[in-house]
Amino acid sequence: MTQVTDIEPDVGDDVVLLTVPADGGYLGVLRTATAGLAARLHFALDEIEDLRIAVDEACAMLLAIATQNAELECRFAVTEDALTVEVTVATVRGAKLPSESSFAWKVLTALTTSAEAQANGRYATIRLLTRRTDY
Prior knowledge:
Mean pLDDT: 88
Protein name: Anti-sigma regulatory factor, serine/threonine protein kinase
CATH architecture: 2-Layer Sandwich
Structural class: alpha+beta
Organism: Actinoplanes couchii
CATH topology: Heat Shock Protein 90
Largest sheet: 6 strands, antiparallel
């Protein structure tokens, strides 16, 4: 079941939480939400597509280390000129995210303003920040 929840904004931000099963079949929901929120910020079409690809890549990394029946928790924070997408999943014991020198990580950093990840043994999170460029 897909769940969408608006929560109390953090420091003036609009925040949307979206939780979907950790299954590749639901990534389209996250890509669509990403595109809709980026469009709300008046991102250029190529920026929206780059962000959709980055979210898809981040989720693919997390799906590879997710526990059985896990859920992807996606937090979108919208500010005046940026969109932060933070995806978290419960991980299997000993799971590790790809290294920052991996191709997948290079894709994330090329498509976003910044990307960071953390794993604590139970959960892994990838945070993507994209600032709108004004043309």
